[in-house]
Amino acid sequence: MKLTDSLPQIEELIEKSLDEDMPDGDITTDSLISPHTKGMASFIAKSNGTLAGIEIARLVFLKVDPFLRFSILYRDGSSIKPGTHLATVEGNVTGILKAERTSLNFLQHLSGIATATAQYVEAVKGLPVKILDTRKTVPGLRVLEKYAVSMGGGQNHRLNLSDMVLIKDNHIAILRHQGLSIKDIVHKARAGVSKNIRIEIETTNPQDALEAARAGADVVMLDNMDLDSMREAVKLVNHKAILEASGGVNLDTVRAIAKTGVDWISVGAVTHSAKALDISLELET
Q1: Which of 15, 173, 186, 269 is 20 to 30 A removed from 9 (C-alpha atoms)?
Q2: What pTM value is reported for the model?
Q3: What is the mean pLDDT of the chain?
C-alpha cells in the first residue's frame, strides 16, 4: 500500500487530529514561548522495532508550521534500535511543541504495528506463506494501519467491505437456514458480483473447504481449524483455491500453522493488539 494513494484522506485525518489536540490553540506554549525562539528536535528510538509513519510525522509538522525543516534519516520499513535518530525538525520552537504529541501518536502507533507484523513475518521465514492483516483496525485509521502492516513485511487483506466478497459464519448461518449448501452459497455470490471480484468463504472443516473450492471460491478460509484439519484441507483442496488460516494465531502457533501448507495466515493481532513502539522527541534550543 502506498501513502500517496490515500493522501487526501490522510491530510484530512491529520487536520482532525490537530483540531482535536488544539481546538483553541496551545495555551501553554503560546503563553510561555516567544514565537521567534528557534530550536531543533530529534526523533529517537527507545526500543528495537520496525519504523512506520515517519512521513506522517513530517506531514503533521508541516501542517502546523510549513516553514519547519523536517529531515528524514530512516525510512519506513527500516529496522531500528535504541538510540537510533530517526529524523530531525528545525525551526520555530512553538511549531515543534504544538506538533509533537500528534506526530508521536501516529509514529509510535504505526511503528508498533509494523514491529508486530515483522515479528510474525520473521516467525514464518523460509516457508511459502504470507502474513495478512484483517479489518480489525481503529475506526478512521485503517489506511494508515494497513500501510504499517506492509512496512512490516505483511500483506493487506481487503481494505473494506466493497473490496471483495467474504462470506462469513453469520452469512452462512442465514443461508443454510434457507436450505443453501456451501456450493449454492458460492454460486449465489458469484452471480451477484462482477467477474473481477474475488470471492472468499469461511469454512470450519476440510469437507466444506473442498466443496467451496470445487464451487469456484477464489479463497477458502480455514476458520479455527486444528493443525490436523488444516493439513487435511490442504491435501483435499490441492491448489484448487487459495487457503487462508484464521483464528487462534499468535507468535507461538504461527509457524506450525504455516507448516500445514496454507497459503495465507491472517492475524488480527498485528493491528488490534500491537503495542506502541517507544519513540521520543528530544528538543534542543
Answers
A1: 269
A2: 0.95
A3: 97
